[in-house]
Amino acid sequence: MTDQPIVHVRGLRMEYSGRTVLDGIDLRIERGEVVALLGPNGAGKTTTIEILEGFRQRAGGEVTVLGEDPAHAGDAWRADVGVVLQSWRDHGRWRVAQLLEQFGALYGPYATSDRDRPYRAGDLLELVGLAPHAGAQVRTLSGGQRRRLDVAIGLVGRPRLLFLDEPTTGFDPVARHEFHELVHRLSDFDDTTVLLTTHDLAEAEKIAGRILILDGGRIVADGSAAALAREVAGMSEITWREDGARHVHSAADPVPFVRDLLARPDTEVTELQVRAQTLEETYLAMVARTESAEAVTPVGEVEAA
Ligand SMILES: Nc1ncnc2c1ncn2[C@@H]1O[C@H](COP(=O)(O)OP(=O)(O)OP(=O)(O)O)[C@@H](O)[C@H]1O
């Protein structure tokens, strides 16, 4: 199954009490990818990943995750999937290492020749930066430390596919940076595919090779941060200093402009900087575009009074 996508979704639909939340989603994630799912509050990100995790029944469409339909997959499949939910409060009196060992024991029977299971609790605590707290009771951890433990629990079975729902909420900048390194390590060296949701666009840009934007029940964008910026015709800003004066120029493609600038005879250009459109600017433009499309009342429908 090496050439099979890790996640393959066609026409996924979901509704709650007759209200459509996902309106035909197509999605394909290849082995080893790190993909970020973005979208406004209530867009359906958690619903989507809960369906992929097998925790929620869909209303329609085809879903294959690691070669199986999550709605009917068994324990061996579940052992391949790691999950970090948005929040859960439990096990307050347990000690950190002891909790990981307990969870880890569930995965022992699912070790394979290419996947040693579970992670040793000590190694995992080292990996997520919780080693000094191995003997602490869970209830004594700070919010960010608790979140690191959530990530460790998601990883303890050494999953092939890891779902992370807003994993870095409450992380300080150092913890956030360490977490980004961890995700890179998982995809580069541990053959782990990662799908995460986040509201932190800088984070998505930093760790995800591909960004999906979910809005109005559909995926409205799919590509690298740079590709999405090109799609909304983002402009790059070029600034430089010349003969003591500061100059600014905007261009869709900065390369020809910079080449001409530097080729000019008798000019000394210093402090040259090119700033590409950020993912935040791209995201805001894309979501605004969907919202203005939705603002049009469809023909034949009457607006509620
Ligand atoms: N169990 C449920 N019953 C009814 N409606 C639900 C349920 N779960 C989610 N919804 C609704 O479905 C929509 C999508 O919710 P979901 O939690 O998937 O969005 P999200 O993109 O993850 O949001 P956020 O960014 O706020 O976490 C929202 O309007 C929400 O109110």
UniProtKB/TrEMBL annotation:
Membrane topology note: Peripheral membrane protein
Alphabetical UniProt keywords: Antibiotic resistance, ATP-binding, Nucleotide-binding, Transport
SUPFAM superfamilies: P-loop containing nucleoside triphosphate hydrolases
PROSITE patterns, sorted: ABC_TRANSPORTER_1, ABC_TRANSPORTER_2
ABC transporter domain location: 7-241
Chain ranges passing through the membrane: none
GO MF, one example: ATP binding
Family indicated by similarity: Belongs to the ABC transporter superfamily.
Descriptive protein name: ABC transporter ATP-binding protein
